[in-house]
Amino acid sequence: MSLRIAVVKGDGIGPEVIPEAQKILEHFLTDADFFEVELGLAKWEKTGSACSPDDIRELKGADAIIFGAVTTPPDPDYRSVLLQIRHELDLYANLRPIRSLRPNPDGSFVDMMIVRENTEGLYSGIEEIGTERSTTLRVVTKAGSRRIAEKACSLVLERDRNHQLVIGYKGNVLKSDLLFRDTCSEVASSFGIQTKAVFIDALCLDVLQHPNNYDVIVTTNMFGDILSDVCGYLTGGLGMLPSANIGDTHAFFEPVHGSAPDIAGKGIANPVAAVRSAAMMLEYFGMKQQACLVEESIADLINSGVCTPDLGGCESTSSFGSRLIAVVCKKEERKI
After folding, report:
1. Which pLDDT score is estimated for 335?
2. How far apart are the C-alpha atoms of 73 and 70, rounded to whole Å?
3. Which residue in the list 229, 300, 310, 331 is annotated as catalytic?
4. Burial letters for 174-186: b for 16+ Cβ neighbours within 10 Å, e otherwise?
5. What value does the CA radius of gyration of the chain take, rounded to a whole number of Å?
6. Which of 77, 86, 98, 315 could form a disulfide with 231 if both were Cys (CB 3.0 to 4.6 A apart)?
7. DSSP-derived 3-state class of residue 265
8. Which of 226, 257, 227 is CA-nearest to residue 243?
9. C-alpha dihedral sign at 179, 224, 286, 191
10. What local confidence, expressed as pLDDT, does residue 99 receive?
11. What is the C-alpha separation between 107 and 109, in angstroms, rounded?
12. What digits encode the pLDDT tens for the residues 55-76?
């Protein structure tokens, strides 16, 4: 039975970068059934719904989802598409790899994984909006903390490096974070993994100053969102950062960057984050060699000066995608 892959192009630059990611997926998943699901602001403006129950049913019927970006307007009647999907599909683990494609002066490469709890925290979706006072409930549960810690610990063992898990938290101010820290520590101990708990503000600075000291970092929802964006500095910007949203039965892959409406339609958006998200999907399906091949091909292009304007190059979104496919094919031919 062939895989069913849902394709959500979304808003802004999503319809420009996702086709390049889809080309990579189609190259390797030759028997897969790709079907498009329209979500986001453009759909909301046409129909009054950015993500309907029927859309959720379609997404639940997919083996995996490749997702572009959606614009979230400052309208209290607009429900966040991403939060809705994460909650409805219970995509509790947000995996954000931070890998540099160019070496540091000492020849080393940045390579860490930020594991972000994805359904609780300040993105719980429990809010009261008023004219004089608005509140968002920050939710931290033992069960939610345990399962994200278990995912992070499994990655520590899989990566087999320093066998340490760093816990990003802010327990000196947010007492709910003590439950998160203590639960993560308990889980790590059961895995035989050492932990280091660091206040998130200090962690954001130190990870930029000493990135090679870090392997796997686990943290809460909002903190993980901010920390991973901060780490974009280490890789060349948000246009380089992929992510995976993983649950027990569903998987959703998206670039970290937003819809970037200021450059939409210009053909200059960097598709690397979307393509690397596609590579994460390949790895999810057990195709680790193919995923590594995509990563190697991206690195070869960028290190030879072939890149989009955000990285100092002159390639368009589509021309970079075409050149990437050519490099992938050439590498495959050499291995035959």
Report:
1. 72
2. 10
3. 229
4. bebbebbbbbbbe
5. 20
6. 98
7. coil
8. 257
9. negative
10. 94
11. 7
12. 999 999 999 999 999 998 888 7
The residue-averaged pLDDT of 215-243 equals 95
Selected catalytic residue, list 33, 54, 201, 248: 201
Q: What does the pLDDT read at residue 336?
A: 58
Which entry of 11, 23, 43, 123 is annotated as an active-site residue?
Answer: 123
Residue 104 has pLDDT above 80, yes or no: no
Is 288 designated active site? no
DSSP 58-84: HHHTSSEEEEEE----S-TTPPPHHHH
Choose the catalytic residue: 11, 177, 215, 225.
225
Q: Is residue 229 among the annotated active site residues? A: yes
- Per DSSP, the three-state class of 274 is helix
- Which among 23, 43, 151, 170 is annotated as catalytic? 170
Residue 330 is among the residues annotated as catalytic for this protein: no
Question: What span, in angstroms and rounded, lies between the C-alpha atoms of 52 and 34?
Answer: 20
Return mean pLDDT, the chain.
94
Residue 23 falls in the annotated catalytic set: no
How far is Cα 132 from Cα 212, in angstroms, rounded to an integer?
46
Tokens of 116: 């972000």
- Is 128 or 220 the better-scoring residue by pLDDT? 220
Burial of 247 (0-12, 13-18, 19+ CB in 10 A): middle
Known active-site residue 77: no
Reference 166, options 219, 129, 123; nearest CA is 219
